[in-house]
Amino acid sequence: MWNTTLCYIEQDEKYLMLHRVKKKNDMNHDKWIGIGGKLEESESPFDGAKREIFEETGLTVSSLDYRGIVTFVSDEFGTEYMHLFHTKAFEGEIRRDCDEGNLEWIEKKKLTTLPIWEGDKIFLSLLDKDVPFFSLKLCYKGQALISHTLEFWKNA
């Protein structure tokens, strides 16, 4: 079980996406995903997201919206807790030499036509809505999404 971050960086109704085509034995091979990666020892999800964004893109974010936590359960890859973020607040120039794949601005409405995980369609639709913090559990058998559970944070 491990903790990761994933951030959707938005500009002009597009997300900066990473097409994962450069690493061998990559669970996300040939998929389009947001920007993120594994948390390092003693990092908070915010620290890890900012570090991963800078390492993968060269961009510096000034604020992040923590939108939810996604629990991936896979018969092939184990369990992952992914901390999901969104931002429009960034600066810098995008580096084109990401060692994990190719970076590209993709229109939000076209994302679901690209090779993405089936469960990503669920949380991508939530990012576009004004919903409270959520917990989404996605269960996979191989590449197939076999079940999901969505719960929203309720303030006391």
Entry keywords:
2 helices; globular; mainly beta; nine-stranded mixed sheet
Proportion of strand residues: 35-45%
CATH architecture, by name, is Alpha-Beta Complex
Intertermini distance:
30 Å
Q: Structural class of the helix and strand makeup?
A: mainly beta
CATH T-level topology? Nucleoside Triphosphate Pyrophosphohydrolase
| SS elements, strand count | 11
How many helices? The count is: 2
Could you give a short account of the major beta sheet?
9 strands, mixed
**Number of domain units:** 1
Average pLDDT works out at: 92
Computed Rg = 15 Å
> Overall 3D geometry?
globular
Could you explain the architecture of this structure?
With 156 residues, this protein is mainly β. It has one domain (2-152): Nucleoside Triphosphate Pyrophosphohydrolase (Alpha-Beta Complex), CATH 3.90.79. 13% of the residues lie in helices and 44% in strands. The chain has two helices and eleven strands. It has helices at 45-57, 120-127; strands at residues 2-11, 14-19, 32-33, 35-38, 60-61, 65-74, 78-87, 90-91, 102-107, 134-141, 144-152. Strands 1, 2, 3, 4, 6, 7, 9, 10 and 11 form a nine-stranded mixed β-sheet that branches. A two-stranded antiparallel ribbon has the order 5-8. The longest helix is centred in the first third of the chain and has 13 residues, at 45-57.
